[in-house]
């Protein structure tokens, strides 16, 4: 992207996180970027193009948060660590998260969503699909290691995503407080029970959960 496109996109992301998606307008973005409204039309063709650029920026950052988790010899701990990174991104960037996965996303963004039970992906945009691919790869590694029983990787990834997404939305809304109780009392035990139900040994699952939590704390997460 050109410098002007970068500046406008960053201004849009700033407005999104501070004031929500409803505040995104050509005038507001131009003011935030210190330029004219015409710049939005010159560089993006209008707000639809700018919203698309903002969404790409958000998905890139989200994917980076998930994929920077290094592989270890414990795929379950790695998968949980990815879930912790997912949760942290959502809580740190609630408006970005809502833009990606919320029910009130602009139609120009929501139209790229796909029925993963039919298409095998959560989006028909290749550059947005990497985050779900990372989730699916984590499921594959757990199955390949014999930690959970072999099943439809896509369906299992969708089930585990549902757990994390639902818990994140409730925590964002304050139903679990803001002291981390949602993680220690709700999500952690729920994921543990789910993995055991999928075939993992409970003691091994507990060790993996503790490893992921300990590593996250050491990293400041």
Describe what you observe in this structure.
The structure is a single chain. The protein has 221 residues and is an all-alpha fold. The protein has 2 domains: 3-45, Arc Repressor Mutant, subunit A (Orthogonal Bundle), CATH 1.10.10; 57-218, Orthogonal Bundle (Tetracycline Repressor, domain 2), CATH 1.10.357. It has helices at residues 3-19, 26-33, 37-44, 47-67, 75-92, 94-101, 107-110, 116-119, 130-144, 153-172, 181-197, 202-218. It starts with a helix and ends with a helix. The mean pLDDT is 93.
Give a quick set of tags describing it.
Arc Repressor Mutant, subunit A, mainly alpha, 221 residues, Tetracycline Repressor, domain 2, 0% strand
Decide which structural class fits the backbone. mainly alpha
Which bin fits the share of residues in helices?
over 70%
**Major β-sheet profile:** none
Q: Pick out the low-confidence regions.
A: none
CATH topology annotation of the largest domain: Tetracycline Repressor, domain 2
β content, as a range? Answer: under 5%
Mean pLDDT: 93
Overall number of strands: 0
| Tally of separate helices | 12
The string of secondary-structure elements, in order, is HHHHHHHHHHHH
- CATH architectural arrangement of the largest domain: Orthogonal Bundle
CATH superfamily of the largest domain: Tetracycline Repressor, domain 2
Radius of gyration: 19 Å
CATH class of the largest domain: Mainly Alpha
End-to-end separation in angstroms reads 31 Å
Overall 3D form:
elongated
């Amino acid at each position: 992207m050109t410098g002007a496109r970068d500046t406008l996109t960053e201004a849009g992301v700033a407005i999104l996180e501070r004031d929500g998606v409803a505040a995104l307008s050509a005038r507001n973005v131009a003011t935030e970027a210190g330029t004219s409204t015409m710049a939005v039309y010159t560089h993006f063709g209008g707000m639809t193009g700018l919203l698309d650029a903002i969404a790409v920026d958000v998905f890139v950052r989200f994917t980076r948060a998930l994929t920077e988790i290094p592989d270890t010899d414990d795929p379950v701990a790695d998968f949980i660590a990815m879930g912790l990174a997912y949760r942290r991104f959502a809580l740190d960037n609630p408006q970005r998260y809502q833009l990606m996965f919320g029910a009130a996303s602009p139609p120009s963004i929501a139209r790229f969503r796909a029925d993963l039970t039919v298409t095998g992906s959560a989006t028909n945009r290749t550059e947005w699909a990497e985050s779900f691919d990372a989730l699916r790869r984590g499921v594959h590694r757990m199955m390949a290691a014999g930690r959970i029983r072999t099943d439809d990787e896509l369906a299992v990834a969708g089930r585990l995503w549902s757990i994390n997404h639902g818990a994140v939305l409730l925590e964002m809304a304050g139903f679990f407080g803001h002291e981390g109780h949602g993680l220690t009392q709700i999500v952690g035990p729920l994921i543990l029970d789910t993995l055991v139900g999928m075939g993992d040994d409970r003691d091994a699952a507990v060790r993996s959960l503790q490893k992921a939590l300990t590593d996250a704390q050491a990293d400041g997460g």
